[in-house]
Amino acid sequence: MPFKFKGLLSAATGAAVLLSGFIVAADTSMAEQILPEEPGFTECARLDERILCADFENGEFYIEDRTSASRWYSTPVGAKQDEYAQGINKTNLYSHILLQYIDENGSENITNSYAAVLKRNGLSLEKIENGIKIIYNFKELGITVPVEISLTQYGFEVKLRLEEISETKGNLIYNITLFPFLSSASLSDRGFMLLPDGCGAISLLNNNRHTAEAYREPVYGEDAIEEVTASSVNKERVCIPAAGIKRNNSALFAFLRSGGGYAYVNACNSKMVNGYNSVYFDFQLRRSYTFSLSAGDENVEIDRSPLADDEILINYTMLEGDDAELSGMILAAQREIFGGRERNVKNGGIFLKTIAACEIKKSFLGIPYTGTAAVTTYKQLEEMLNEIGESSGLDISVLLKNFHSDEIDGKVTKRINPINSLGSKKEMKRIFDRKNTDVFVSCSFDRFASSGNGVNRFFDAARNLSKASTRLYSYLLSTFSVNRSARTGYLVVPDKLYGIYEKFRKKSDGFEQIDIDTLATTLYSWCKNKKTNSREKDKRLVTDLLKQMKADGFILTAPMANAYALPFLNYVYDVPASSSGFMMCDYSVPFYQSVINGFVGYSAESVNQSATPEDSFLSLLESGGDIAFTVMYNSDIPLKGTSAEGIFACRYNEQRETVIEIAKDYARFRNEIDNVFISGYEFPADGVVKTVFSNGTVLFTNHNAREVSVGAEKIPAGGYIIRRQQ
Asked: What pLDDT score does 697 carry?
């Protein structure tokens, strides 16, 4: 089933787009055919070619693009004739707000603005600059929610200031959904929904996957403060707080400028709960904590403290015609994250995640103790760099893991003291001064396993609603249960982060290229001095810290970083080549890679640790990133029972020929597309991907076990071909 998005740098000609096996022409949906002078609606604001019209009786509104006459309504046109919604899902269709609240007895309840506001005369509307303000008064609950809708340069925005919410009768908002059907499409519409799951996922409209579960995943991953005592198969995280929908010849792309720390991304295909395809955000404004008093008896404690002085701000970009494709959504995300920065970062190298040392069990006179052993000395690393560099001719970035004593000891990083057994200072200097090689050192500022360096687990570990310090576990690959032989980790109280960094900055000793690891990937709420602090506060603290680190001259890298960290990073690694594979989705697409392409260097997950390295290699070529390997040199040290036990398939001595051959193959590919950006991405046939680069060069990759023909092109099984621009 073919799917494609048009070029990022130049749109394809014509209005027709090949999508899901049929042609989507320039016809319009039922909503777009309604006359501009719709009865009951009054024009409230106009900006450029967009107008906002509202009905002051029922609060309904729409935003129209005057050049195309396309409209996006606060609730779907024809909702009252929907045949699929039942029960509360029926009135949800007519609602702007879905509310989950806690009453005085601690019981959870649900309602919506149609039943609890509009039907009880609790709605009022007023004009504001460039828009309207709607006040939703849930009279019986004593809850009032004011929401502003304003036109912007590229579309419109929805704003909710949490300090303006009123709660007067003991009922407290637990979760709120804003305009769940503003970004929706009907059964007759054609297009797709974009979900920011992992690298990115596409769900085609009306794809008949209504027996699958609806999509709901937390923005920036789960709250790390919630202690997890068992692991399962990993899902990919949501790192970009955005979602989009293409409906015929128009698209709407939503990006969370603030409030992502509270947010979940939702998506429903038609016929799941109603007859509409929709993408939207909901926001958990208060945290909950589950605990057991006895076996099989679970209790839920919900935070009842006042709401924070944060705001939720959703920015909607309206896209029309040739811009209403995935490429237009990517450009909108780039504008939100990187502003007006120019794309000038080129990929085309090798990323070498190197395990330098590990803790092992030793004994002296029969007395056991824990010691440290080098698994990749400086000389061995130099040998690897020489062999891989000379065979490929590519630049190499090295990330040294378990390189210094603070990291080995599980302390927050105060000073980088390299492990003595790695070699001499002269040998180390030769590595760091090596041409065409960047060396990053792994640091930890936001988590620790051992007290020290000014951090104590009794006073400085982040606490959850139970007032207990949250413990971080590692898990056994065989059973997914907690590895009791490994050290327990803790999260640092976020308002200690700047002080930890300042101590490191003063003693950084010239180590300016650092890996900040989970600081760019993990958000958490925490309790301190009887006050609950939100993940939004953590996000602000981390963003300010990264800005300061960048200003201080540090060159930063991190794995699969969250969007707020991206403007301060030079490099991102471990970017997945796929989404989580939820059943409601049809394709994985390199949305994350395309957004950062040209702004931040990046590499995929390590090819040599993949269960299917050949397939991973093809996915890497499609995404335009650097190729990555995880390696350690020494094959003599037994790793069972050590801190490196969970690291597999990375002994360089055993994989030398494979690593070098893959690096050579990648170098041949990069020579064909050097110094260019991704400009388009298609699925011309099942298992076949077509990537178009900014110089016109085209890459075909075939993930099938057989040769596939696409037009005149024959792509070998499990291989690729490149066609240069003529």
From this structure: 86
Q: How far apart are CA 63 and CA 53, in angstroms?
A: 6
pLDDT in tens, 573-606: 999 988 998 999 998 889 999 999 989 999 999 9
Least confident of 69-83, 101-115, 355-369, 695-709: 355-369
Closest CA to 444 of 455, 430, 458, 432: 455
- Spatial CA neighbour of 148 closest among 135, 159, 138: 159
Pairing of strands 350-355, 526-528: unpaired
Q: Give residue 97's pLDDT.
A: 98
The secondary structure of the chain in percent helix, strand, coil, rounded to multiples of 5, reads 20, 35, 45
Rounded mean pLDDT, 161-174: 96
**β-pair partners for 45:** 52
Alpha-carbon distance of 224 to 470, in angstroms, equals 8
Determine contact, residues 668/679, Cβ cutoff 8 Å: no
CA-CA distance, 173 to 103, in Å (whole number)? 9
Q: What is the pLDDT of residue 264?
A: 98
Closest CA to 162 of 174, 180, 145, 185: 145
pLDDT in tens, 687-717: 898 888 888 889 999 999 999 999 889 999 9
User: What domains lie within the chain, and their CATH numbers?
Assistant: 29-338 (2.70.98)
Edge-to-edge strand list for the sheet holding 688-693:
22-24, 17-19, 3-5, 678-685, 688-693, 698-702, 720-723
3-class state of residue 359 by DSSP: strand
CA-based nearest residue to 418, from 502, 506, 509: 509
The whole-number pLDDT of residue 100 equals 96
Locus of tokens 């295909």: 269
**DSSP labels, 125-193:** EEEETTEEEEEEEETTTTEEEEEEEEE-SSEEEEEEEGGG-EE-SS-EEEEEEE-TTSSEE-TT--EEE
Which H or E element spans position 252? strand 250-258
Listed in sequence order, the DSSP H helices in 353-441 are 378-392, 405-409, 425-432
Q: How confident is the model at residue 35 (pLDDT cuts 50, 70, 90)?
A: very low
DSSP of 615-650:
HHHHHHHHHT-BEEEEEB---SS--TTSTTTT--S-
Is there a contact between 73 and 245 (Cβ–Cβ < 8 Å)?
A: no
